[in-house]
Amino acid sequence: MGEERTAVDLPRAERAMRDFLTAVGVDLAAQGMEETPARAAALYAELFAGLHTDTRDLWSDVLTEETDGLIAVRAISFHSICEHHLLPFFGTAHIVYRPHAGRVAGFGVFTRLVERVARRPQLQERLTADIAREIEHGLGAEGVLVIVDARQLCMTMRGARAHGTRTTTSACRGIFCADKTMELQAWQMLGEWGSGENIPLP
Predict the structure, then answer these.
(1) The three-state (H, E, C) secondary structure of the chain, written as one string
(2) Domains identified in the chain and CATH numbers
(3) FRET partner for 96 with CA separation of 20 to 30 A, picked from 128, 132, 146, 151?
(4) Is-contact 99 142, C-beta < 8 A?
(5) What pLDDT, on a 0 to 100 scale, did the predictor assign at position 20?
(6) What is the pLDDT at residue 193?
């Protein structure tokens, strides 16, 4: 994991969760509910673990290869929590980047990067931009394109209850923003990344 920033106060979180559940009418004395505040506090500490780590260590083992082509990493699964209603959204992230001076990272680095930035209260648009910015800065990539395709439970469990709806966001950095030919190549690298794809439950 990355550098720890702050400690999680689980006893305080448990007390707050107990107060919250009681306030909305949950009977914590009912069978099976006694330990729910503690379990929920531990769960959210895990889901928000990205608040207490950074990503600098991910780029400590960068490789240098003789390549100037584009590199794509597709269908990285993730789950995150929407900061508006604290409901999950989940799906897949797709990444294309153009290395600078042959600097590349192992494919597992991108999986861990997506996981870390997803494990904090997020918006899909910000998550997409965060991933692109981290790759541009951490790897020194000349260009980065990130596409995130997700299902938002706040759209299906409340409000319009738009079941089956998916949202797609993209973020472009560096040369892909300035050179339309390069940008097109980046999109083509991903192919039909979203066509008919079923996003699995995490």
Answers:
(1) CCCCCCCCCHHHHHHHHHHHHHHCCCCCCCCCCCCHHHHHHHHHHHHCHHHHCCCHHHHCCCEECCCCCCEEEEEEEEEEEECCCCCEEEEEEEEEEECCCCEECCHHHHHHHHHHHHCCEECHHHHHHHHHHHHHHHHCCCEEEEEEEEEEHHHHCCCCCCCCCCEEEEEEEEHHHHCHHHHHHHHHHHCCCCCCCCCCCC
(2) 10-47 (no CATH), 57-190 (3.30.1130.10)
(3) 151
(4) yes
(5) 96
(6) 52
